Amino acid sequence: MAEAEVRLEDSWKAVLGEEFDRSYMSDLKGFLQREKAAGKTIFPKGAEYFRALDLTPLDEVRVVVLGQDPYHGAGQAHGLCFSVRPGVRIPPSLVNIYKEMQSDLGIPPARYGFLEHWARQGVLLLNSVLTVEEARAASHQGQGWEQFTDAVIRAVNEDCEHVVFMLWGSYAQKKAAFVDRGRHLVLRAPHPSPLSAHNGFFGCRHFSQANDYLLAHERKTIDWQLPETP
């Protein structure tokens, strides 16, 4: 936690710094220390806990995508929701995200799943829970991360104007239910998982709707097409 905290980007540190003094964060730090001391492998590595915030400063946020918790396979998670490191097989949900982008914008699917290109343009790729034990999905839920990421969403809601919130699935929709729809655009659809994508994620056209909204409010649009190589 300490290593990751030091790396927190300045604009986020200004609005979230007090969170690190709260008891839940102390409890979370203790939990992570005990897990590591017990020999458990935690993803992502400590320096990448806050990678989404490091890559997307608060004043540059234009789109928020909410995930649930990191991928729990070796080599996958690196701090951005839905994203995997270069060379790692593209996860099924991201395959479906690419399919919807192709249908919506005519963008051919990328050959990799590394999404830093989006993050560097102002797409906050935020998981609700920022760590996970290897091979144990959702193993760090309820340990305090949710309270921290609620504070992240509140900061965007209150300090930014005309942000697009892409809320895929009931979990994300519930977590960001308080977002002010008078100030921001809230787009809702089923999760892109193969279990639910055919129930309305396909055809949601969130990517074109996001850019149309940003353009209408004189904000720079997102180049959703990933570079040829990561």
Automatic annotation (TrEMBL):
Q: Which GO terms describe its molecular function?
A: uracil DNA N-glycosylase activity
Instruction: List, for all copies, the residue spans of the domain called Uracil-DNA glycosylase-like.
Output: 54-214
Q: Which gene encodes it?
A: ung
NCBIfam families the UniProt entry points to: PRK05254.1-1, PRK05254.1-2, PRK05254.1-4, PRK05254.1-5, ung
Q: What is this protein called?
A: Uracil-DNA glycosylase
Q: Which SMART domains match?
A: UDG (SM00986), UreE_C (SM00987)
Similarity-based family = Belongs to the uracil-DNA glycosylase (UDG) superfamily. UNG family.
Instruction: List the subcellular locations.
Output: Cytoplasm
Q: Where are the catalytic residues?
A: D69 (proton acceptor)
SUPFAM superfamilies referenced in this protein's UniProt entry, alphabetically: Uracil-DNA glycosylase-like (SSF52141)
A Pfam family found in this protein is UDG
Its keywords, alphabetically, are: Cytoplasm, DNA damage, DNA repair, Glycosidase, Hydrolase
Q: Which HAMAP family match?
A: UDG
Q: What does this protein do?
A: Excises uracil residues from the DNA which can arise as a result of misincorporation of dUMP residues by DNA polymerase or due to deamination of cytosine.
- EC number, UniProt record: 3.2.2.27
Q: Catalytic activity, per the record?
A: Hydrolyzes single-stranded DNA or mismatched double-stranded DNA and polynucleotides, releasing free uracil
